[in-house]
Amino acid sequence: MGTEAQASTTSTPSVGGPLAQRPGKIVAVHLAYLSRADQRGRRPAAPSYFLKPTSSLGAPGGVVERPAGTELLAFEGEIALVIGEPARHVSVEEAWEHVAAVTAANDLGVYDLRWADKGSNVRSKGRDGYTPVGPALIDARAVDPAALRVRTWVNGGLVQEDTTGDDALLFPFAQIVADLSQHLTLETGDLVLTGTPAGSSVVVPGDVVEVEVDAPTAPGAPSSGRLVTTVVQGEVPFSDVGAGPKIDDTQRAEAWGSRAAAGLPPEPEPEGEPEGEPEPFALTDELADKLRRAPVAGLSAQLRKRGLDNVIIEGLRPNVPGATIVGRARTLRFVPNREDLFAAHGGGYNAQKRMFDTVGAGEVIVIEARGEKGSATLGDVLALRAQVRGAAGVVTDGGVRDFEAVAATGLPVFSGGPHPAVLGRRHVPWDTDVAVACGGATVLPGDVVVGDADGVVVVPPHLAEEVADATIAQEEQDAWVAQQVAAGHPVDGLFPPNAAWRARYESQKAHEPQEFQAPQESQAPGESR
């Protein structure tokens, strides 16, 4: 490294390598790089975090154990930010001023233990030595945070390389610092691990992992130097005092980066789906618009004509008069409260929170609460989260707390009504994206859900286009019939039309098609039938 690079790089070996003091905390970002997000198949709308203990710090040139009885130890080359001046409620524009230095880090983790962590990463990423950093610090004032580079080598081969430009990151580093500062004080010496790009994979005993952070376009191209870590085999087995290792093919695929990299066959095609099957159903904007114009009463009638009489979600009303819902179902199941089960499944990042955090644009969260209205199934914070993510609404056969605040979010919610009690009074959030029973109707993930002032109906996807078209056609005919009744004709023979009246209708429709639109003037502002 040249003299100029040395001038903007410091190297003061201490605990954890170059750090002048042991940090008070280590905060790590789950996903920050576009390449990693696309590899994972999800792009979060906002950064999320977990904490690592300071006892996980490791020095350059050290070793890290793959615990006895485990298979999936994975490396993650990352850029670590070292906080200088404490940061609390700082803006994005001010945030980088609170970063003293950057360096290389390796956010190691054992996928065999993720099942027990439930998102905390305490077991999988908190082990001794699982956060090596260094070997040198790069002065944050000497570099552009959008012009850094991180690279990782395993046994001399380059396996990760990415930059921090706008086209590479989901969340710029200044945004991460500013966001964290609105929740907690980032203190002098704290470390922020900023996520890893694509290419993270599994290492085995004997492998050598090297991570380097540099600023190749800055004067002198300052670098952290290579952070070298050697993997060794742990010898101490897990006892039965707590959760031990457990893996499946899903964890293998995530740890290795793909099923192919893990040596697994491709996901099998669904049984009974022959070659040449049409593209999976998609709720297009055009079809969604048709369903908004098709009243639930009409859809129900059309489904009944096709032999489906048990598709109404009973007993629900919209939180705001005139609210409507059209979208595909994401499902959330609650089971009756049992104290030991709530202790295990009710707290932390439970099934309810995961659902509201991952609902997609245009999707409807359908909650099975067994018709139990003696506690709420959501409140204003979760409603706001769903609204921000673009959800089409929520359907629950349970209660809703913060009822007026939920309504104020603008998220359409159909429910059993308001109730002030929290979830745990009656329910345990159990699982997601499974078949549920809501208001007496079975709802599968992906079913089409339509709601208006008359209630909520579940439409099997393969029938959605057909029943939407038939309902709209029926609405046009009913509107014409209503005109005849208003003109003084009796309903006998007209409702429904007999052969003579039908012939008259078809003739007039052929000559005056503009007259055959369902009336809109009775709808609430912004409402679409």
From TrEMBL:
Database matches in CDD domains: RraA_family
Key word Metal-binding present: yes
Superkingdom field: Bacteria
Compositionally biased spans, kind Acidic residues: 268-278
Composition skew (Basic and acidic residues), residue ranges: 503-514
Protein name: 2-keto-4-pentenoate hydratase/2-oxohepta-3-ene-1,7-dioic acid hydratase in catechol pathway/regulator of RNase E activity RraA
Region (Disordered): 1-21, 252-280, 502-529
Domain (Fumarylacetoacetase-like C-terminal) ranges: 25-231
Keyword tags: Metal-binding
PANTHER family named in the record: ACYLPYRUVASE, FUMARYLACETOACETATE HYDROLASE FAMILY PROTEIN (AFU_ORTHOLOGUE AFUA_1G02370)-RELATED
Gene3D superfamilies: Fumarylacetoacetase-like, C-terminal domain, Ribonuclease E inhibitor RraA/RraA-like
UniProt biased composition (Polar residues): 1-14, 517-529
